[in-house]
Specification:
By secondary structure, the chain is mainly alpha-helical. It has helices at 35-39, 47-59, 81-112, 117-142, 150-156, 164-191, 204-224, 232-255, 257-262, 267-282, 295-315, 321-344, 350-357; strands at 3-7, 10-14, 17-18, 30-32, 159-161, 288-289, 348-349.
């Protein structure tokens, strides 16, 4: 039962515990996979690199990093109104994404323990990192008089099943785009300290190195399974996951552009920078890259932004629900058409592009 007492803009499960955001296509996903198939993988082709990454995980560079300092010990009532609401949403989305990674990696570590000890230990140590991240973000929420019940979240969220190779595509991109998002914010605020409205961003430089190492791990796993990267299906799936990750971030962030403005960032410019950097990074392992230098790529995403605004306006209107469906149908069709055209844009051969960069 949701407590009738609410903080502005948020429902509570009980005092101080926020009702999790409603699941949509754009919210962070919780994943499960075929654990037996993953346990049977032969990693011998690239085991040396995986063992080297395992040694990095064991070193635990950020063991003492996630410790709140005196700067947190103050009132944050100066962050109010819509900025406060958007800030809480940012912390919640980030915490949910990190906690999703923790759950997946912890279960993989448990399931693979007896069959693939190198992978099992890597997953366990990555789950350690993700737990720290989620805990640090959830503690930050408490500065705004809210928190997430992560146990409730574990039981209440639906889980998306992906075969192992799709888990690798998705988590690799999630970790690498996380690196570029965090380091871009950190570098901006380092250059513009007047925009540092909350101290959590000071932790992003070391924090994003965890994301980078996790991404390197998935890079090494995929290279140990060359069949995942070297056929025509790999090219199609690479395009799909790159587009899915880029479009999801873009649609989410532009919708929350006021949050980025509070940090002195233009959300569109920020996303374009992150997309280009992540696309370039992904080209080191994926067989193709998207043509994200083409202005058409962002023009079509901008049409999707406009479509989302139309859908929200229809949903918030007084039109009966059964009529709203017919009003939304052409918008859905436009949305699908834009994404299809983006998927069909001619990709870039990664090997050629990386050779040109070098």
């Amino acid at each position: 039962m949701v407590d009738s007492l609410k903080k502005p803009g948020f429902e509570e499960l009980r005092p101080g515990v926020k009702v999790p955001a409603k699941e949509t296509l754009l919210t962070p996903r919780f994943y499960t996979t075929d654990f037996d198939e993953m346990a049977q993988m032969d990693i011998s082709v690239n085991e040396d690199e995986l063992r080297a990454i395992l040694e990095e995980f064991r070193t635990d560079y950020n063991r003492h990093h996630f410790v709140r300092d005196a700067e947190f010990e103050q009132s944050w009532d100066n962050i109010d109104g819509e900025t406060r609401k958007l800030f809480v949403e940012f912390l919640e989305r980030s915490c949910t994404a990190e906690f999703s990674g923790f759950l997946l990696y912890k279960e993989l570590g448990r399931r693979l323990k007896d069959k693939s000890p190198v992978l099992a230990e890597c997953f366990n140590l990555m789950s350690r990192d993700e737990a720290r991240h989620a805990g640090f973000l959830n503690k930050a929420l408490s500065d705004f008089d809210l928190s997430l019940d992560l146990g409730f979240l574990t039981k209440s969220r639906s889980y998306t099943f992906f075969k192992p190779k799709f888990i690798f595509y998705a988590t690799y991109l999630s970790e690498k785009i996380g690196y570029w998002r965090y380091i871009t914010i950190y570098r901006h605020l380092e250059a513009h300290p007047e925009d540092q409205i909350y101290p959590i961003f000071r932790f992003f430089e070391n924090w994003c190195q965890d994301e980078n190492r996790h991404g390197d791990f998935f890079d090494a796993i995929m290279k140990s399974q060359p069949q995942m990267l070297n056929d025509w299906k790999a090219k199609l799936w690479s395009r799909f996951f790159l587009l899915s990750v880029f479009a999801t971030m873009y649609l989410n962030d532009i919708q929350r552009k006021d949050f980025y403005a509070s940090l002195g960032l233009d959300a569109r410019e920020y996303d374009i920078h992150v997309i280009k950097k992540t696309n370039e990074t992904a080209g080191r392992v994926f067989p193709i890259m998207l043509d994200v230098e083409n202005p058409e790529f962002y023009q079509r995403l901008d049409v999707c932004i406009e479509n989302n605004e139309k859908l929200r306006a229809i949903s918030n209107s007084n039109t009966p629900k059964f009529l709203q469906f017919f009003q939304k149908l052409p918008v859905y069709l436009s949305h699908g058409w834009q994404l299809l055209r983006l998927y069909l844009m001619k990709p870039i051969d990664a090997a050629s592009a990386q050779g040109a960069i070098r």
